[in-house]
Amino acid sequence: MQFLINCCKTRPTASDSEQIRRYSSQFNHLQLTEIITIAHIHGVFPLIYHALQVHASELLSSDVFAELKQYNMNIVMQNMRMTAELIRIKQLLAEHDIPILAFKGPALANLAYGDITLRQYGDLDILIKKRDIAKSIALLTKDAYIAEINLAEDTQETFFACVNVIGLEKAIRIEIHWELLAKNYAVAWEETELWLVNDTTRINGVAIPILAYNTHLLYLCAHGSKHLFERIEWICDIDRLIREKPDLAWKDLLEEARAKGMERILLLGLTLCHQLFELPLPTNISTLVLNDPAVKKLATQIIKLHFSTTIIQDKSYRTFWLLWQMREKPADKIRFTLRALFSPKFDDFKSLVLPKRLLFLYPLIRPIRLLTKYFQTS
User: Fold this and answer.
1) Is the pLDDT of residue 18 over 80?
2) Is 2-335 assigned to CATH 3.30.460.40?
3) What whole-number distance in Å separates Cα of residue 128 and Cα of residue 377?
4) Is 299 a residue whose pLDDT tops 70?
5) What integer pLDDT is reported at residue 224 of this predicted model?
6) Full-model pTM
7) Domain assignments of the chain as residue spans, ordered by start
């Protein structure tokens, strides 16, 4: 894990470089297979390949380097196909007066990494307005995409009100969002604020509308925390996005985080970037971290959980407890608990299709499924 983290650093030290060289000089076929597998799981293989090129290319045998190069080329080609598809889908929806905001995927790769091939992504994330949900799904279905769930007409309204995303696939998977996060996570942006201020990034000469910078950064912190930052890429994304904006208005970012009840979530993401990637933090941010002991405790637990050799047996139960601790306000803790228990999610609709007259039961089905998920014996 330390090798992977060192390879992902924007500015590795001489010691980091030496560790990369020392570790890679011992590669055999079994180790190479393991590195490829773990790097892929953590979504950072392109960064690993790039770091080996820079720091240890002469130490790798021609066979090893050829295998790494081929694996990286597969990712490059896939990223290029997905980027071209993002541009095509953006144009398709625009022709039918459906605006989009891209986030994560090629948009984030271009914005934070400066290169669409340096970040792994397995799907395209697109935000649309709620008014355009049914129309967008119909257009993509006509375009040969297949929705991951077949919704009866009388179920659609309830599904769209409860869920925030639907996936569609053909050769490429697209996730159409009308809200950034699931309701049960109890962090939300009003639709008007998402569309009032946004940015663009140019990919292949095409202007792609994207989330406003602060919104994108806060979303990355929320998304990563929701998954307990179990992948290195989710921490690396935050680190790289911040480094690409030296004039970041930290005061505005903090105010927006506080308004959303996610100051601790933001500080947690920043702390992990600082601890793993030596991200420099302003004095006021460091002071806020010091004044909130929960942040350091959460960061330590997450690192122990995902980036150490410690085996944690009660991950399911621990997940809910850690997510609960990420909320700094008692009211937010209560809201998170209630929504986690009773707000239906995609899986609830997927696992059980109810007729129209019984749709009101979905919030009651949710706690049963949660009890099974979080409190079953490991």
Assistant:
1) yes
2) yes
3) 40
4) yes
5) 97
6) 0.92
7) 2-335
